[in-house]
């Protein structure tokens, strides 16, 4: 048995460091070498500050700068696309239109189940492959992509999804561009859900209204 304790600049914005430090000390007594601190670099950074309480991300950057984030897995997707986009180089939509999400949607490892029971492959929040409580049936029968046009488009290429959103929902490309294909995909899905509730794969709807 073991346990993982997360430590990073985003968690520390909301969870006082002394709670994290106490959890690590207690878990080390109980689990010994089977304690994983993820990521230990940040744990030592915060200890070096003799930090108590929380630390805003903007203050973190003032202290450690961008080099302080060298070891973080800052994936350019989800809320990162809106909250931290200034940290990334941006590209026009056409840069990503030939890419697809086939590998992400078909992956067999590191899947998630959200609080609403949606089965999610990878890190694609708000994009449901079905009800995880019916996973056996889902895996046995598969999905009818004709009933899930968003998923069908993503299996082919982002250009198909982009043209669909422009044609059916008057989607307008962001003037400042996109930090990744995930940014483009998410922004299109967010626009669609704000204009239509008929796509069952865009679940939960609440996800799209709390990104910014």
Structure description:
The strands form two sheets. The chain has a two-stranded parallel ribbon with strand order 1-2. The chain has a two-stranded antiparallel sheet with strand order 3-4. The radius of gyration is 20 Å and the shape is globular. The chain is mainly alpha-helical. The chain has helices at residues 17-31, 40-48, 57-64, 80-83, 102-106, 135-141, 149-156, 158-169, 181-195; strands at residues 3-6, 35-38, 112-113, 119-120. The longest helix has 15 residues, at 17-31. 39% of the residues lie in helices and 6% in strands. The chain has two domains: 3-73, no CATH class; 93-209, no CATH class.
Instruction: Quote the beta fraction.
Output: 5-15%
Main beta sheet, described? 2 strands, parallel
Q: Element order, helices and strands?
A: EHEHHHHEEHHHH
Average pLDDT taken over every residue: 94
Q: Largest sheet, order of strands side by side?
A: 1-2
Low-confidence stretches: none
Q: Measure the end-to-end span.
A: 38 Å
* Number of continuous helical runs: 9
Give the strand tally. 4
Structural class: mainly alpha
Q: In one word, what is the shape?
A: globular
- How many structural domains does the protein architecture include? 2
How many whole angstroms does the radius of gyration measure? Answer: 20 Å
- Work out the helicity level: 25-40%
